[in-house]
What we know:
- By secondary structure, this protein is of the alpha/beta class.
- Helix content is 45%, strand content 13%.
- Helix 4 (74-83) packs parallel to helix 8 (184-192).
- The longest helix is centred in the N-terminal third of the chain and has 18 residues, at 50-67.
Amino acid sequence: MKIGIDIDGVLIDIEKWQLDYGSKFYFEKYGKAIVNYKGYETNEIFDVPQKYDDEFWTKYYIEYSKTANPRMFASEVIKKLKAEGNEIYIITARGDFLSKEPILYEENKKMIIEWLRQNDIIYDKIIFSEEDKFNICLEEKIDVMIDDKVENINKISKVIPVICFHAGYNEICQGKNIIRAFSWYDIYYKIRNLEVL
């Protein structure tokens, strides 16, 4: 089976990271507090214009990319899935909003690959995508995708099963081919039992 895995929200708990670092940034710089803890971007969480989210990520993107911890047991479960004969595809839109220059884009890709290496996350192929991962799943013949973004979950689940890694911002996702998971061992169980779900 070909398993597609997103990074932010799946390998990393970006929801918690944005709440923690966002609280510091928006309080210290703008005196703002969390307004909507179920927001997807920091501007939604703190109810501010989009340009503030850009400012937040300009300040913290490199730190996040280098130091954010992977979710508990992500590496362990991915190794088990690989050992059982599955192919692992990392499919990420990471840096799409930020890395428009060729050199920056290449530096960004190297930083992501290094983070995966340092955190012992194995894979067969990594794909740097636009935000919309639907076509990649079709082109690569992905059998199941693990994602957290509402738009991706809703679109991809029309053709293949999607494991929705639970977050406040994706609670609305439900329906055929959408399987909610709460941890990496929960993902492991659900992938191994996919045919009966």
